[in-house]
Amino acid sequence: DTGVSQDPRHKITKRGQNVTFRCDPISEHNRLYWYRQTLGQGPEFLTYFQNEAQLEKSRLLSDRFSAERPKGSFSTLEIQRTEQGDSAMYLCASSFGTNSPLHFGNGTRLTVT
Amino acid sequence: SQQGEEDPQALSIQEGENATMNCSYKTSINNLQWYRQNSGRGLVHLILIRSNEREKHSGRLRVTLDTSKKSSSLLITASRAADTASYFCATAPSGGGADGLTFGKGTHLIIQP
After folding, report:
1. Terminal CA-CA length for chain B
2. What pLDDT tens digit does each residue of chain B (113 aa) get?
3. A44, β-bridge pairs
4. Given an 8 Å threshold on Cβ–Cβ distance, is B98 in contact with A41?
5. Angstrom distance (rounded) from CA B39 to CA A47
6. 3-class DSSP state for residue B18?
7. Contact A105/B92, CB-based, under 8 Å?
8. Is the dihedral of CA B112, B22, A106, B48 positive or negative?
9. I want to staple A43 with a disulfide (CB 3.0 to 4.6 A). Which of A19, A22, A35, B39 is the partner?
10. Is the separation of the CB atoms in A67 and A53 below 8 Å?
11. Three-state SS for A71?
């Protein structure tokens, strides 16, 4: 399967700890997106990369959040000093070009206790 | 923030019946897309309709777009139990916005066998 993969699938952490998630997009896709989804809601945009450049960050992305995409391949999303409000599903998606359908991974479910 | 608003929030029908979901949005768009999400999984792209198109078909799916009313509908004909999922509309802003897609809150569809 050459779809978008995310690791880990689940993460339970204590408040105040740092966590890092990884996303491996479809190899020929140049765009990579991070979304956050809470129960009963649609995905909310966090940030996106075109190749290795981070081109846009949502207001939702506080300074505790940082994302990287070294060499334009996989991406990591780090949350520092986690808070209970960070509990959510973090979804990664990739696409090729502008205004193209997104291909989503199955997400990382974060629970902050 | 979420631009799209799906209606209804939840829909329960008998297998074999048709399911119709509606989506309204607020700003000018380049295209509108529909996605399906099974519980605990990532989103799967269903269909994309561009702003200059009025109707599009894909298998048992039919999507309409009315840009004057800023609304779209998704019709699933001859529903099956496997269609049980949440369905989201997502808009891509006109002008090549860098924010990625903006998703609504979704319609939760249950197909009763």
Report:
1. 36
2. 456 688 899 999 999 999 999 999 998 999 999 999 999 899 999 999 999 999 999 999 999 999 999 999 999 999 999 999 999 999 988 865 555 788 999 999 999 98
3. A36
4. no
5. 24
6. coil
7. no
8. positive
9. A35
10. no
11. helix
Omega before B8 cis (within 30°)?
yes
Q: What's the Cα-to-Cα distance from B13 to each of A47, A57, B4, B57, B107, rounded to whole Å? A: 37, 40, 23, 22, 13
Give the count of Cβ contacts less than 8 A between chain A and B: 64
In this structure, what token pair is assigned to residue B50?
């561009």
The three-state secondary structure class of A72 is helix
How far is it, in rounded angstroms, from Cα A96 to Cα A27? 10
Residue type, B23: C
Q: Are A37 and A89 in contact (CB under 8 A)?
A: yes
Cβ of A104 within 8 Å of Cβ of B42? The answer is yes
> Which two structure tokens, joined as six digits, stand for B24?
């309204």
Which residues neighbour A59 within 8 Å (Cβ) at sequence distance 6 or greater?
none
Q: Give yes or no for B51 touching A (CB within 8 A).
A: no
pLDDT in tens, A51-68: 999 888 888 788 999 999
Distance between CA atoms of residues A93 and A106, nearest Å: 9
pLDDT tens column, A16-39: 999 999 999 999 999 999 999 999
Contact call for residues A3 and A26 (beta carbons, < 8 A): yes
Would you list the DSSP string of B72-100? EEEEE-S--GGG-EEEEEEEEETTT-TT-
